[in-house]
């Protein structure tokens, strides 16, 4: 069970230009059909304003534990304003758990007898769905460094939902979307302390290596993100990892830009009109 695969570090300068908003995609976990992965639509800021709080809370809750000992106690991983900006540019993806009650709960006007056992159960399911709408259990941000290089960060899954494959599903989803949008490579940054080994970060390095991500470079945080230095309580570096994305036509052993293939990343995406 992947206990810590729900987070990674990729502090992104929000002033960096991004590609146009991603198309609307959705995917469902085969093992857990009540959990789906989708791009958050800008319209949801108006139609479902709680989405900002929900995503921000998920990310900050996960990073509070995952980055313990690295940041000042009052430092939050993200903010409502930052999450809003990512949603507006189509960069925020979420894992959503919907009500998993069985049966058809549509109100068809039949069997309205409240003494009927099945009718009472149907009404209770409807009431439960109204009181407990779909809940966001994971999130990740996907952006582009250039036309052919994607990057991601803020990968987070709530503790109570870890072990269900949600982290794997989020990662596969963003890799597939990045490939669909023309990316040839995808990168992430992991914040690591210089003088000691952080258990969560060590786990992440191993987990991403198993997913096909290879070390690219290490950079001092002060040079890469100077505004973050004062928020740290430990000297840290940003370690950048990269993965080459391959499409169907390259699965036979072809290469990209002369580089040997390191992985094959593919996920069937279904066009969605979710708003």
TrEMBL record:
InterPro entries: Acyl_CoA_acyltransferase, GNAT_dom
CDD domains cross-referenced by the UniProt entry: NAT_SF
GO MF assignments: acyltransferase activity, transferring groups other than amino-acyl groups
Region (Disordered): 97-130
Domain N-acetyltransferase: 91-246
Acidic residues bias spans: 101-116
This protein's name: N-acetyltransferase domain-containing protein
Gene source species: Exophiala spinifera
Origin organism lineage: Eukaryota, Fungi, Dikarya, Ascomycota, Pezizomycotina
